[in-house]
Structures are given as structure tokens and as C-alpha cells.
Design a protein that fits this description.
Elements (H helix, E strand, L loop, with lengths): L7 H11 L2 E7 L5 H10 L2 H7 L3 E6 L3 H7 L9 E6 L5 E6 L4 H24 L14 E4 L4 H7 L2 E4 L11 H51 L1
Parallel strand pairs: 1-2
Antiparallel strand pairs: 1-3, 3-4, 5-6
């Protein structure tokens, strides 16, 4: 299996340049049975051939790269495989848990069919008409949440019927947003740790002061 060497953002850019599907393999620990089985399936020659036109990236659950990805696309099952339209950011197909070669091939075919259907719709769209026509298409967006809730509530919702005329956010833009949220949360955690250290140091000083006072009182009594 030929995996893309680079981060999520770079892989998305590569997929978009090739107008290819962006495939993400979220794996568990190397000794987990389901991950071992899915890894073996992904090395099957027929599966490798079916995925050859896609830009594929492998991320391990719990790593920073996976956290970045899961802040855009919620990761529910591990291991799992996501097939994403790199031009719109819409997840075409997701499969995970106990995966067989047959079920994975079916998911690959579904993703390819959905891309094909989208292309046919674009080609069939009229160039001009007597009356203005509003064409709506599904897109994906990140639900807005406060910084304190972002870690648990950042997720992607499929949105259809966008009549406001706004363009769907580019997938790269959403990845950058995820990076900023992660950096912000990291900064908050570091600030909290510093505050905890300050409180601990203050407590240590107060305990030390109390001990000295007690010792001095005992010496005076003696």
C-alpha cells in the first residue's frame, strides 16, 4: 500500500490537485486484532489497485495528527476508513470496526460512484436559462462552539440546501481552523498547569511558614 508521506493538510492539497478522493485510515495500536486485520486487507493487491487513484494517509488514534483529523470528522470507530471528496470536504463513505475485504471494496465502489454522480450532475447543469436558477449542493461545515467546548463539541455536520449563496468552506480552511483550535487548547492547558504550579508553590510556602512558626513557638516554650 502506498501511503502519503506528510500531514493531513498536505495530503488534502495533493488530493485536490489530482482531483482525487482523500482516503484516511484511522488505526489503533499495532497489536490490536481489528487493526492488524484491516492493515492486512489494505495490503491486498485488489484493494491496493482500487485505492491507487486516491490519496491515502494513515493516522494512529490518539496522535496529534489523528486529533487534528477528528476535530473535523468525528472518529467513532477504530480502526476505520474515511473516503472524502477533496474538492468539497464532504465525507462520501465511512467504514470501520470489523471490516472484511468485501465490505471495504463495497465502500470504495460507493465512494467512486458518488464522485461520478456529482460529476454527472455538474456536466448536466444548464449553461444558461430564461429564468435565474439557484443550484444548491451539499457541503460540510464545522459546528461553532466556544473555545472551552471545542475539544469535545467540534464536529462536522453535512449541510444541504445552502440557499444563502455562501460558498462552502474549503477543506484546507477547515484543517487550518482545527490546527488553531488545537493550538488554543494547548495554550489553555499550559496556562492551567502554570496556575496549578503557582497554587502548589504558594501552598508549600504556607506549610513551610507554619512549620517554622511552630518550631519557633516550641523553642520559646522550651
Amino acid at each position: 500500500m502506498e501511503w502519503f508521506n506528510g500531514g493531513v493538510g498536505e495530503a488534502i492539497a495533493a488530493a485536490k490537485a489530482k482531483k482525487a478522493i482523500f482516503a484516511v485510515f484511522v488505526k489503533g495500536k499495532s497489536d490490536e486484532e481489528t487493526t492488524i486485520k484491516l492493515t492486512e486487507i489494505l495490503e491486498d493487491s485488489e484493494v491496493v489497485s482500487a485505492l491507487s487513484s486516491m490519496v491515502c494517509i494513515s493516522v494512529e488514534n490518539g496522535t496529534n495528527t489523528c486529533l487534528q483529523f477528528s476535530s473535523i470528522y468525528p472518529v467513532i470507530l477504530v480502526p476505520s476508513v474515511y473516503f472524502i471528496d477533496s474538492s468539497t470536504g464532504v465525507d462520501l463513505e465511512i467504514t470501520g470496526g470489523i471490516v472484511t475485504k468485501e465490505s471495504l471494496m463495497a465502500s470504495i465502489n460507493k465512494a467512486n460512484d458518488k464522485i461520478g454522480e456529482a460529476a454527472d450532475i455538474v456536466q448536466a447543469a444548464p449553461v444558461a436559462s430564461a429564468e435565474p436558477v439557484t443550484v444548491t449542493e451539499p457541503s460540510a461545515k464545522i459546528t461553532e462552539s466556544s473555545t472551552s467546548e471545542a475539544a469535545e463539541e467540534s464536529k462536522v455536520e453535512a449541510v444541504s440546501g445552502n440557499t444563502s449563496g455562501e460558498q462552502p468552506k474549503a477543506l484546507e480552511e477547515r484543517v487550518e481552523r482545527a490546527k488553531l483550535l488545537m493550538a488554543q487548547r494547548q495554550a489553555e492547558r499550559e496556562a492551567q498547569e502554570k496556575e496549578k504550579e503557582k497554587d502548589k508553590e504558594k501552598e508549600r510556602r504556607e506549610v513551610g511558614k507554619a512549620l517554622l512558626e511552630r518550631k519557633r513557638t516550641q523553642e520559646e516554650q522550651d
